[in-house]
Amino acid sequence: MGYTHPMTDALVPRVEDFDEISALLALAFHGSPEPELREVQRAVFEPDRALLVRDGGTAVAHAGAYTRELTVPGAAVPAAHVTMVGVAPTHRRRGLLTGLMRRQLREVRDAGREPVAVLWASEGRIYPRFGYGLAAQHLTLSCDTTELRLPEPAAAEGPLRLDRPAAHQAELARLYDRVRADRPGWSSRDERWWAYVLADVKTLRDGATERRVLLHEGPTGLDGYALYRTKAEWGRGGPCGEVRVDEVVAADPGAYVALWRLLLSIDLTRRLSFGAAAVDEPLLRLVNEPRQLGAHLDDALWVRLVDVPAALAARRYAVDVDMVVEVTDELLPENAGRWRLAGGPSGATCGATTAPAQLACDVRALGELYLGGAGLGALAAAGRVRELVPGTLAAAGPAFGWHRAPAPMEVF
Ligand SMILES: CC(=O)SCCNC(=O)CCNC(=O)[C@H](O)C(C)(C)COP(=O)(O)OP(=O)(O)OC[C@H]1O[C@@H](n2cnc3c(N)ncnc32)[C@H](O)[C@@H]1OP(=O)(O)O
């Protein structure tokens, strides 16, 4: 049986189809189906949220979603975490992805539970056409640690312990949840997600050690942890090993510095890499030579407002804002029209209005602004937001910002 139109032909797979989906994604991402990784991914797979296209019985296109919360400025909102998107090389550029994205967004919208969708894109050019805007960037650090010093501690730093991460899952989860509340871009992690995050697939270690957790004890218990591994290397000048940091979570500045002090000075290592640094990572404000952090800017989260008024009302705003915005949305026409947003640091409302608009933009620009990481002024300067009433940008710009930059953690 061949396919005719992916909007109608995409099926909701069964859990038993996972191996086939996994093989399709390995094909699309140029990997080989790897049994240990497959089991880790199977544990978080949500078949009832997935869409699978078959051609003559063979899986040729897939898109999935995870049910998680996303921290946004001042709140956490249910968000469809879109994932595992792939089309077989033999079936690309025939509109399969377009059909899957349209159907997925329609289903999320009609279910009415998640006002936004969020994803990591393999390539930035794929998702804007579906209304996704680049809402969060991140830094990858590649440092020569011999060039970096941290300030001496003002007071004695708490004790540090090293252990196997899995032995501390519940403690890590409690701390993560405490810190997550104030970090737009972090996603909720239930037990399954913690198992996913802590899984340490051997074939993905690239010659490095197993993953370790570094724990910092504050006066009232655990207040910081780092997940990392090391890789031994020897050169003509002697040891030149590498520290590979996956995650640093600290509820207290003292814990943060203590963790980094150890990570930056592990014996026999000379380099450190960290792929999940925030654009406003405190380390940039601590080291004596920020340039030597070797920071590289990358795109991270792409956000799509699925229900514009519900999404805009769900986040908070840095300062009071009251304005009317005219929105266009080709894929979800319910979002198009004029919306009055009235909000501030303690909450917001948003509803349809016939009042004249002060700003105009497409739904993608709103996705870009949603986590507080993109400037309204920058979008206006790019011609992507139009100021219809002079003065609106200056008044509304600060409202859409936030005191912390959005900073995603794991790639999902
Ligand atoms: C959230 C995630 O999982 S991100 C991971 C995405 N997956 C991958 O990168 C794996 C490898 N790539 C693929 O599997 C496929 O190429 C996909 C999924 C990116 C695209 O699937 P397709 O079915 O070929 O997309 P489709 O035919 O619907 O293309 C729609 C439009 O997007 C464009 N487009 C799609 N993918 C790309 C791309 N990678 N680069 C540039 N343009 C692209 C097409 O040219 C087309 O444009 P047009 O409408 O102007 O003709």
TrEMBL record:
<feature type="binding site">
    <location>
        <begin position="93"/>
        <end position="98"/>
    </location>
    <ligand>
        <name>acetyl-CoA</name>
    </ligand>
</feature>
<comment type="similarity">
    <text>Belongs to the acetyltransferase Eis family.</text>
</comment>
<dbReference type="Pfam" id="PF13530">
    <property type="entry name" value="SCP2_2"/>
</dbReference>
<feature type="binding site">
    <location>
        <begin position="85"/>
        <end position="87"/>
    </location>
    <ligand>
        <name>acetyl-CoA</name>
    </ligand>
</feature>
<dbReference type="InterPro" id="IPR025559">
    <property type="entry name" value="Eis_dom"/>
</dbReference>
<feature type="active site" description="Proton donor">
    <location>
        <position position="127"/>
    </location>
</feature>
<protein>
    <submittedName>
        <fullName>Predicted acetyltransferase</fullName>
    </submittedName>
</protein>
<dbReference type="InterPro" id="IPR041380">
    <property type="entry name" value="Acetyltransf_17"/>
</dbReference>
<dbReference type="InterPro" id="IPR022902">
    <property type="entry name" value="NAcTrfase_Eis"/>
</dbReference>
<feature type="domain" description="N-acetyltransferase">
    <location>
        <begin position="6"/>
        <end position="153"/>
    </location>
</feature>
<keyword id="KW-0808">Transferase</keyword>
<dbReference type="InterPro" id="IPR036527">
    <property type="entry name" value="SCP2_sterol-bd_dom_sf"/>
</dbReference>
<dbReference type="Pfam" id="PF13527">
    <property type="entry name" value="Acetyltransf_9"/>
</dbReference>
<feature type="active site" description="Proton acceptor; via carboxylate">
    <location>
        <position position="412"/>
    </location>
</feature>
<dbReference type="InterPro" id="IPR016181">
    <property type="entry name" value="Acyl_CoA_acyltransferase"/>
</dbReference>
<feature type="binding site">
    <location>
        <begin position="122"/>
        <end position="123"/>
    </location>
    <ligand>
        <name>acetyl-CoA</name>
    </ligand>
</feature>
<dbReference type="Pfam" id="PF17668">
    <property type="entry name" value="Acetyltransf_17"/>
</dbReference>
<comment type="subunit">
    <text>Homohexamer; trimer of dimers.</text>
</comment>
<dbReference type="InterPro" id="IPR051554">
    <property type="entry name" value="Acetyltransferase_Eis"/>
</dbReference>
<keyword id="KW-0012">Acyltransferase</keyword>
<dbReference type="GO" id="GO:0030649">
    <property type="term" value="P:aminoglycoside antibiotic catabolic process"/>
</dbReference>
<dbReference type="GO" id="GO:0034069">
    <property type="term" value="F:aminoglycoside N-acetyltransferase activity"/>
</dbReference>
<dbReference type="InterPro" id="IPR000182">
    <property type="entry name" value="GNAT_dom"/>
</dbReference>
